[in-house]
Design a protein that fits this description.
Protein name: Metal-binding protein
Number of strands: 5
Distance between the termini: 16 Å
Pfam family, one: DUF1636
Organism: Jannaschia pagri
Structural class: alpha+beta
Shape: globular
Helix content: 10-25%
Strand content: 15-25%
Radius of gyration: 13 Å
């Protein structure tokens, strides 16, 4: 089953300057899309505003019938993007979407904001 990573493309971290070429969310989205390219069971999409502005940059991980997660407070860099994709791949492989803590990539530890049970 495919896990979808939704990346907020309007996120702006503290220190972002108006007039910058792109938002921090757009930067993270590009990096996550590149890291997810060709990864089985992982898809990406962008969405404008996940309403987690105080904890930018934000992403969600979702798949039908599985626990869903919101993660945030990322620096928009390659390490964060790879950690997000690595976790999404494990989420896709887990029957319930719950990945044991010992399997979490270091780059996503401390970035969980919420989790939501699947809809029936």
């Amino acid at each position: 089953m495919t896990t979808v990573i939704t990346i907020c493309d309007t996120c702006k971290c503290d220190g972002w300057e108006a007039g910058s070429e792109q938002t921090d969310g757009e930067t993270l989205a590009s990096l996550v899309e590149a890291a997810a390219n060709g990864v089985d069971g992982v898809a990406t999409r962008r969405h404008s505003c996940l309403m987690g502005c105080s904890g930018a940059c934000n992403v969600t991980l979702q798949a039908p019938g599985k626990m869903a997660y919101t993660l945030g407070r990322f620096t928009p860099d390659a390490e964060a993007a790879q950690g997000i994709v690595d976790y999404a791949a494990k989420h896709a492989q887990a029957d319930t979407g719950v990945v044991p803590f010992r399997e979490w990539p270091q780059a996503i530890k401390g970035h969980f904001v919420t989790r939501h049970p699947p809809l029936d």
